[in-house]
Amino acid sequence: MRLKRLELFGFKSFGKKAILDFSAQITSVVGPNGSGKSNIAESIRFVLGEQSMKSMRGKRGEDLIFNGSQSTSRANRANVTIVFDNTKREFALDFDEVAISREVYRDGSNQYFINGSQVRLKDVFELLSAVHIGASGHHMISQGEADRILNANPKERREMLEDALGLKQYQYKRAESERRLLKTEENMKEAEVLRREIAPHLRFLKKQVEKINEGKELRERLIGLYREYLKREEIYCEYKINDIVGRKHAPAGELADLNIKIEHARGELAKESAGDAKSARLLDVESKLRGVRARHDELSRTLGRVEGMIEFEERQLKKKQESLAHQEDIMVRMGDVLGLQSTIEIELTNGEGSDDVHYVKSSLNRIREAVRGFISHHKSEAGQKTLTDADYLEVHVLREEKVKVDEALRAIALESQSMEAEYQAVKSEIDQEKEHSRDTERALFEMMSRRGELQSILDRIRNEEENLARESRRLEEELNEAGILLGRAVLDYSNVAVGVDEVRGEPRESQETRRREIERGKIRLEDIGAAGGEEVEKEYTETIERDAYLEKEIADLVQTQQSLYSLIAELNEKLDTEFKEGVRKINKQFGDFFRLMFGGGIAELHIVKIEKRKRRDTDLDLSDIPGDVLAEGDDEEEEGIDIVVSLPHKKIKGLQMLSGGERALTSIALLFAISQVNPPPFMVLDETDAALDEANSRKYGDMIENLAKLSQLMVITHNRETMSRAGVLYGITMGDDAISKTLSISFEEAEAVAK
Asked: Is residue 81 within 8 Å of 101, Cβ to Cβ?
């Protein structure tokens, strides 16, 4: 790759367009002081992306623009274009020429172009770094900078050598890897923080899902229990209805026949004992006895009804007690609710009228605490509630009524016994008086006795019917409650495998046990609750997936972290290896150039350890100030470069003891040695030979001729010897218009002028 030409327009003293062609391997730029020679070197720095205004002898961007003169107006912008030969495609562009341009405007803004297309500064740096060219590299030696490598400290020298050896690409990769490592570690921390944040919510959701699953299992089990219970209860009710109907038919029919026969017998007796007072008395006693027995039957039915109502009320009281124990229905006084409403409205009014965010937040907290206190207070009150006397009043009334009925039954039983005795006495008298009607009366008495037995049987059957009616009503209630709690699926119990014989042979207590188990299951299901189950399960699944994703992300980041650690270690090892190998090669060239310049002697580069300063007890505590402040006990070391020289015939072994000319020769020897090891495509030497005498100038000329075999050179000089080695010579002049102008001559003309 060759440097073909440089075009300047409006840059510093070049008010008009100037073009410099670099057709020779060595191009020399000459001219009097102040003519603008160094502006050419600075223009190359400028177009290659230099950002330091100090390096280009300016303070602002407009300092680089031609400022005009008495005869020429100032320029509004400065433009520099450098053109490279790319026929060998060293640049990753499919063009035979690569032209890089930079423009700066009066407002300080800059624009960059590659082959006429506007690009970013980063694009220019990436393009040039591929061929080891930069704005401030070792191939750009400005006036006064030749001695910089000698004045630098060991760490700075190492950085210069790394740049010259082309190791910047590894440093860029290492810096990029370190940035990626830092970003990876930040991402790991963020992912871990996110996992820690969702962990409590995940545990809560897991418990909720377990509770929901438990509720589903309990629901299915309860449906099964309910179906069996309802099936058995339905079979029992149907069986009892049929049984009662079957048992009632015969006694009822027999009683009807007996009533007809009794009436007929009474008619016969009435005919036989017409006008007989004792017969009338007997009939009167019989009538009263029937009335007493009728009242006895009515009281027996009343007693059965009262006992059924007592059983029903006791069952309701039991349910209410269980409801109070589980805080199902909590009664709240309207005064308490209105008090809570007043508190909330006051806090909301105060919060709306305040612009203080903290006061609004505190108002919201007070509202939340008031609601929580209200709920907690009534929960605690509900937990202490039990059944009151009012709840037991109905049962007490029914039980008192039962006692009264029992007493009435006992009184009627005594009365019945008394009347039965009287009846027997009268009957005996009539028997004695009317032997002829004894058979009829005996038959009548037997029929009446049988009728009493039949009426007792029918009374018991009626009691069973009333109890069965209550069971049927309770079955309907259970059906409605089951349908509301568990849905219509629980009502489909027709296929439950339960037979009539199994229900008939089972004690009634077993069915009651099932009912109590169902009640406990219902209470447990209401405690668990199942509302929003699908939403909770969906959120739980999404949270599980989110947690798994974060876990995988952290694992990937850990793997990336390890890979970056390995890459950084490899880059460090490669940097160290290639740096030491480059130092070894530079040392060889440095020694050769040094002996050529001084006719002997020794010059070497040594890799030395740089110990970082430890903080002493007497030092100020700067731990709270950001920066690379070492902690006590930190003995980390870095490597730098030290230069050791030994002049022939002199006992001088340190750079501090060299004279100005010797320092110039040493720095030139080192710079040329570096360039020999890793030759740049071109070099710009701005009056690096200013301090050389005639003899050393010839040596310098020989050195640049050898260097020109590897790199294209542009030399800005006043030295005739250096001019004589150039293939093309550019002269820079400046007239009254303060504009730098260029004049090129061939080598032969330059040699004639030099001589």
From this structure: yes
The enclosing domain of 37 has a CATH number of 3.40.50.300
> Which structure tokens are listed for 515?
């009912």
* CB contact at 8 A, 429 and 278: yes
Whether the predicted pLDDT of 618 surpasses 50:
no
The pLDDT of residue 422 is: 81
Q: Measuring CA to CA, how many Å separate 28 from each of 626, 688, 743, 755?
A: 49, 13, 12, 16
> Residues 587-614, buried b or exposed e (16+ Cβ, 10 A)?
bebbbebbebbbeebebbbebeeeeeee
Beta carbons of 228 and 514 less than 8 angstroms apart: yes
Residues 6+ apart with CB under 8 A from 40: 6, 8, 20, 29, 714, 716, 732
Q: Which residues pair with 640 in a beta bridge?
A: 608
d(CA 712, CA 685): 11
118 or 631, higher pLDDT:
118
Summarize pLDDT for 66-116 with one digit per residue, the tens: 988 877 888 899 999 999 999 988 888 999 999 999 999 998 899 999 999
Indicate the residue type of 80: V
Question: Is the Cβ–Cβ distance between 671 and 682 less than 8 Å?
Answer: no
Q: Which domain holds residue 34?
A: 2-139+680-754
The residue type at 164:
A
| pLDDT beyond 60 at 750 | no
Residue 632 has pLDDT above 50, yes or no: no
Domain count for the chain: 1
pLDDT tens for residues 398-451?
888 888 888 888 888 888 888 888 878 877 776 666 665 667 777 778 888 887
Dig out the tokens for 42 from the structure. Answer: 């600075």
The closest of 180, 9, 176, 187 to 82, measured between CA atoms, is: 9
In a domain, 557, yes or no: no
Angle CA(319)–CA(324)–CA(327) in degrees, nearest 5? 125
- Using a CB cutoff of 8 Å and minimum separation of 24, what contacts does 147-152 make? 147/663, 147/664, 147/667, 148/667, 149/667, 149/670, 149/671, 150/643, 150/655, 150/663, 150/666, 150/667, 150/670
- Cβ atoms < 10 Å from Cβ of 528: 15
Among residues 130, 139, 102, 146, the alpha carbon closest in space to that of 6 is found at 102
- The C-alpha R_g of the chain, in whole angstroms, comes to 60
228, HSE (Cβ side, Cα atoms, 13 Å): 17
DSSP state of 107: T
80 within a domain of the structure (yes/no):
yes
Phi first, then psi: what are they for 617, rounded to 5°?
A: -65, -25
pLDDT score at 284: 81
Six-digit token pair at 592? 């050769």
- Return the structure tokens found at 337: 């609710």
What is the three-class DSSP state of 86? coil
522/516 Cα distance (integer angstroms): 10
Contact, 167 vs 579, CB < 8 A? yes
The conformation of residue 494, written as its DSSP 8-state character, comes to T
Cα angle at 275 between 271 and 279, to 5 degrees? Answer: 75
* Token couple for 233: 């209860």
Contacts 24+ apart (CB under 8 A), 480-488: 482/226, 482/230, 485/522, 485/525, 486/219, 486/222, 486/223, 486/226
Residue 224: inside a domain, yes or no? no
27 occurs within a structural domain: yes
Nearest-angstrom CA–CA distance, 177 and 197: 30
pTM: 0.50
Question: Which among 127, 139, 131 is positioned nearest to 44, based on CA atoms?
Answer: 139
Residue 330 has pLDDT above 70, yes or no: no
Helical ranges in 109-167 per DSSP H: 121-129, 148-151, 154-164
